[in-house]
Amino acid sequence: MKRLLFAIGIAIPALLQAASAVGFRVADAKGAPVADAVVSLTPLDGPARLEPPTAPVEIMQRGQEFSPYVTPLVAGTRVSFPNRDTVQHHVYSLSKPKKFELPLYAGEAKEAIVFDQPGIVALGCNIHDWMSAYVVVLATPWFAQTGADGRAAITGIPPGRYRAEAWHPRLGKVESRELDVSGPPAASVDFTLALKPDRRLRRVHSAVPGGYK
Prior knowledge:
The protein is 8% helix and 43% strand. By secondary structure, the chain is mainly beta. A 5-stranded mixed sheet has the order 6-12-11-8-9, with no helix packed on it. It has a 4-stranded antiparallel sheet with strand order 13-2-15-16, with no helix packed on it. β11 (119-125) and β12 (132-138) form a beta hairpin. The longest helix has 17 residues, at 2-18. The N and C termini lie far apart (72 Å).
């Protein structure tokens, strides 16, 4: 028993030391940093263990917009859609990974939606056409979202072969490449994305001071 405990005591620190980090830099064709890109690492040597959070993730409606605009999460995660506006919203998605509808409501949504299939889910509001957002459902626990500087980092990655991917709402397809993570020091991955023009609808300012249609 003492030998077993000793072996475990050695193995656990060794595994922790073997875990690595991968830094990402995402830019557009002109070299400008890209915010709200979702980067991920999917293991190629076997499926990853998924552990969705016990509490729902929130995508709220505030200022007649969805917040946040992009939400990456692991498959199996529940999402609630609280309405913090003084007007009602009708949230829906027609995307294949998750089709759902939350009829017109204010305040708290009646139920949380389980996003159980990997893929991109586009959100909308039947009442306010300009409202849009995306849920990126992933079959891996190793993912991150770029900030305004176009950078993100994923830590605690076991050694192995991975498919590194980058996605953005203005990207026509997912960009990917293979990556071999062998432990410290941290690896680095750069993605240059050919982004499409931003076609999002914008709110139209009404004649009422401080108001929106």
